[in-house]
Write a structure and sequence with these properties.
The protein is an all-alpha fold. It has helices spanning about 5-10, 10-20, 25-65, 70-75, 90-100, 105-110, 115-120, 125-130, 145-165, 180-195, 200-205, 215-220.
Length: about 220
């Protein structure tokens, strides 16, 4: 495909950063765009796994704490830890959709919630209202890791996830130069939290194509 056709497909505005990072070389720009997509695919797999194990750990914790498998639905009520949640309307919408489909179960409700919902659970309002013990899910957390740090770092991971989900470039620095520090920092942060949850990232990610070194080298040496 010629670059002009690529521009029609993906828009000049989207491709301009890639072309600029390649010194105007349109062939390299198309290659860099494809590499960025491949890199996003690899990190999306890691993020997907992390999101699932995080939400399951939170769900297990609050099912036991509230002695209630339907804790999400019930904690939306006045006095509940989710009563003032910014995701409340979205959660209720998910619940109503499941009711209409005749598929309302606690597990379905858990699976329907966004990553933003789960990271919000570490905001000080639901965290404090929920007994201030949600950090117990991190059985292997480093010493001194507190609620505020966990919340802020999960927001960083969420932002990284959203960039990938919206097909944004992740291979540049703030000046538009090819730079891998952003993805490498976020990747390590995700691996840290996988470890905090008590898992070996090697074992958990075994069988998934999440090795990025070769691809990162191709991007930097293009």
């Amino acid at each position: 495909m010629r670059y002009k056709e690529y521009e029609v497909a993906f828009s000049p505005a989207r491709l301009n950063r890639y072309k600029a990072a390649c010194g105007g070389d349109t062939r390299k720009a198309m290659t860099l765009y494809r590499y960025n997509v491949k890199l996003c695919q690899k990190y999306y797999a890691v993020l997907n796994i992390f999101e699932i194990i995080l939400r399951n750990a939170i769900d297990r914790h609050y099912r036991a704490f509230f002695n209630d498998p339907n804790w999400i639905e019930h904690q939306l009520l006045p006095g509940g830890i989710l009563a003032s949640s910014p995701q409340k309307a979205e959660v209720l919408k998910h619940i109503q959709t499941l009711i209409k489909k005749g598929k309302l179960t606690p597990d379905k409700v858990v699976a329907a919630q966004s990553f933003g919902f789960w990271t919000y659970m570490f905001n000080k309002i639901p965290f404090n209202a929920g007994g201030k013990n949600l950090l117990d899910i991190f059985s292997n957390k480093k010493i001194g890791l507190g609620q505020k740090t966990v919340y802020n770092e999960l927001q960083i991971i969420k932002q990284f996830r959203n960039r990938i989900a919206h097909h944004e470039p992740i291979c540049f620095d703030s000046l538009g130069n090819r730079n891998m520090s952003y993805v490498q920092t976020n990747h390590q942060l995700i691996l840290d939290y996988i470890s905090f949850l008590g898992y070996s990232d090697f074992q958990l990610l075994y069988g998934y194509d999440v090795q990025t070194d070769e691809l990162i080298n191709k991007i930097m040496n293009l």
